[in-house]
Design goal:
140 residues, mainly beta, Immunoglobulin-like, five-stranded mixed sheet, three-stranded antiparallel sheet, 1 helix, 6% helix, elongated
């Protein structure tokens, strides 16, 4: 195990990590920017793949979102179906459309414009998931 000083924001997301225990000047400087400090002994460096637990006494590895997509390529007027989307997940589509998932767990999008679209799923304490979907022009 190794010791690390973890600086984290009010959402308990890790902003900076130093090997060992940081000196008081560094801690004061980081806390002056609004960050909190935690010293942990862990096997792996606590990167952005981790967050600080609610008790603020340990770091926890983020969880994978188990979202699935029926197909990455469709024609105009066909539907993309994302399943296993947890309630409260934020969804952004190519920076143009955004929303939050309800309790149904299924997101259905109807393709109306040909092109490549990025669908980004984010949820607190989970890894971000990004899908690239492709909408083809209708074939005759």
């Amino acid at each position: 195990m190794s010791q690390y000083t973890v600086f984290y924001n009010s959402d308990k997301e890790i902003e900076m990590v130093l090997n060992g225990q940081a000196d008081s000047a560094t801690i004061s400087a980081q806390e002056g920017t609004g960050l909190s400090t935690l010293v942990v002994d862990v096997d792996d460096t606590p990167t952005s793949h981790y967050y600080v637990n609610d008790a603020e006494d340990a770091v926890v590895r983020k969880t994978e979102l188990g979202i699935t997509l029926d197909s990455m390529e469709k024609e105009i007027d066909q539907q993309f179906t994302f399943s296993n989307v947890p309630q409260g997940t934020t969804i952004a589509i190519s920076g143009v459309i955004s929303g939050t998932m309800d309790a149904s767990g299924t997101l259905t999008l109807t393709a109306k414009t040909a092109g490549e679209w990025r669908v980004v799923f984010t949820k607190d304490k989970f890894f971000e998931v990004v899908y690239k979907i492709f909408v083809k022009r209708r074939t005759l």
